[in-house]
Amino acid sequence: MVRWLLLGCGPVGHAMLELLAERPGRVQVVTDDPERVTSLREEGVRATHSDPTDPEMYPAAADVVLVVGEDAKRNLAAVESAREQYPNAQVTAYAGVEADPEFVERLDEAADRVIDATGVLTDYVVEMVDREPARRLRRLLSVLRELEGPLAVVTHDNPDPDAIASAIALCRIAETVGVDADACYFGEISHQENRALVNLLDLQLRNLESTDDLEPYAGIALVDHSRPGVNDGLDPETFVDIVIDHHPPRAPVEARFVDLRSEVGATSTLLADYLERLGRDLDRTVATALLYGIRVDTKDFTREVSKTDFEATAYLLERVDVSVLERVETPSMSADVFETIARAIRNRESRGTALASCVGKINDRDALAQAAERLLDMEGVKVSLVYGYKDGTVYVSGRARGADIDLGETLRDALGQIGSAGGHADMAGAQLPLGILEEVGDDSTESLTEVVRGIVSGRFFETLGTAPVPGVGDADELTLEFPLDEQT
């Protein structure tokens, strides 16, 4: 049950009370207007005759504080008192009548939300505060405020645009409640478009070399992945404060605040939603990064896109730097990427409409995803898997289009027992430790490659329920049908 506290009760407050009377929750009013107190008590509303800026007269607890007096100066004092009394509550303030711009600016710094129009305030509180999205935002802000030091927002290893943008956005949200935050990652940013995004927007990210680098931080947040030690350099036992992700988890996720919504196409969508509900001015840097993150993860709104993704895009569009987006999308492609794509095409193995390709030793793991996308463009191909190894790990990237399978679940079933694997129905990946296979050594690269190919392709095709089909060649077309009992 939501505990509402109204401080001051002019025309705006009275309008709010009429609407709140129809909704569940406990309402308390503190106002210095004695006639209003009498009237409210006759209507059955808990009302206290006192100075709205005096915290001694406030109730013991409140979830949402609405400062709705007519004078901006007094409203500012009430906001500051409420913030000190209820550090975890959501505080929304009305700027008052003909407010001085100086007080409006100070109100914006002190409150979670400031509205200077009566109608907008009413619509905002009714639509936004008393629903699940608003409750999520309140819980997130509450966890942030309770931190006793800076926050490390950790992406998955070698972050993509969605992870990068989400980390930067969460840092901005933390700053609105006075918490310093850094966007952090293990590994490297090697994909040419990802590097262009970081460089052109001048994004500040911290490259972590070991878990010792996290000692100065009082809190840990994970974005675009949900479990420490899985696709990041954290210890699996790391205590996590915040998790925000759009990937369906395979195992339980533990954190003080968890927002997992697999129905949306990108984690950037969730962060854009938070920022819109906060009502703060969104700078072009964050807006541009978030929009690019959504576009990449939804493949320009053609893959696992939802209504929420479109709504977030509409919010961001007016605020992005279009010229930067154009430059990010047309970076030069490195020779390593071209070579990986060429090897993927040359080494492909087909089983009906599915194919897999081992490219051997790699320098740039991001090239695997680009190769998988290219192979999916081949005629008759519905599922593509490209994999290679680097630094003692086999990296796997898969794509699907129009196939009657869930690729994320397929890779979990095929490779989850020997590594970490998962993702979405049409975009997934895996990481497998080479272990004893690595001891084959550089002098026997061909043998190591063959062993890796046998394990990954073998398990993949077996899980798909396919086998080599006589007469299927490069020029042949075959519609692959997966048995019902083999679908995942």
TrEMBL record:
<dbReference type="InterPro" id="IPR051319">
    <property type="entry name" value="Oligoribo/pAp-PDE_c-di-AMP_PDE"/>
</dbReference>
<dbReference type="GO" id="GO:0003676">
    <property type="term" value="F:nucleic acid binding"/>
</dbReference>
<dbReference type="InterPro" id="IPR003148">
    <property type="entry name" value="RCK_N"/>
</dbReference>
<feature type="domain" description="RCK N-terminal">
    <location>
        <begin position="5"/>
        <end position="115"/>
    </location>
</feature>
<feature type="domain" description="DDH">
    <location>
        <begin position="152"/>
        <end position="294"/>
    </location>
</feature>
<dbReference type="Pfam" id="PF01368">
    <property type="entry name" value="DHH"/>
</dbReference>
<dbReference type="GO" id="GO:0006813">
    <property type="term" value="P:potassium ion transport"/>
</dbReference>
<dbReference type="InterPro" id="IPR038763">
    <property type="entry name" value="DHH_sf"/>
</dbReference>
<feature type="domain" description="DHHA1">
    <location>
        <begin position="354"/>
        <end position="439"/>
    </location>
</feature>
<dbReference type="InterPro" id="IPR036291">
    <property type="entry name" value="NAD(P)-bd_dom_sf"/>
</dbReference>
<dbReference type="Pfam" id="PF02254">
    <property type="entry name" value="TrkA_N"/>
</dbReference>
<dbReference type="InterPro" id="IPR003156">
    <property type="entry name" value="DHHA1_dom"/>
</dbReference>
<protein>
    <submittedName>
        <fullName>Phosphoesterase</fullName>
    </submittedName>
</protein>
<dbReference type="Pfam" id="PF02272">
    <property type="entry name" value="DHHA1"/>
</dbReference>
<dbReference type="InterPro" id="IPR001667">
    <property type="entry name" value="DDH_dom"/>
</dbReference>
